[in-house]
Every structure is written in structure tokens, then in C-alpha cells.
Fold:
Amino acid sequence: MAKRVKSEYQEWFEMLGKEYRRLRKQRGISQRKVAEYNFNPRQYMTFEQGYPHTLNTFFKICKMFKTHPGKIMLKINKK
Structure:
């Protein structure tokens, strides 16, 4: 499992992870099914747990959920 890095943005990554989880469940995508979108399921779960990841990964996740990155950003910034 990835090592959690203390970051000034940790709270933001945790909110992002919660939004990923909400979207995944809403769309009926199982943890195993994320592999069909070229993600290692174990690695993807670390993103839902709030572990930091790259902007490129963020865009891939948005593509998996068929949503615009701005929608996710607006959603988590309202919290």
C-alpha cells in the first residue's frame, strides 16, 4: 500500500477521495471493475482513501466517471 505523505493538501485529497467513492457507487462501478479503466484496483482504492496522486491520474479518473474535472472540483470546493 502507498505510504501516506503528510501534505498541506491532505484534507483536499481526502475530500477528493470521498467524491471518487460517491461517484463510483453512484455509477455502479465495483472496486474490481476499475481495472477495466486501466487502474490497478488496489492503487485506485488508495485514491479513494485520500492518498495524493497526479493531475494526470485525476483526469483519468474523471474520464472513467464520464464527468468534467471542473464538476468534481466545484463539488469538493463547496464542502
About this structure: DSSP finds four helices and no strands in the chain. The first helix runs from residue 10 to 26. The helical segments are 10-26, 41-48, 55-64, 69-77. The chain has a mean pLDDT of 90.
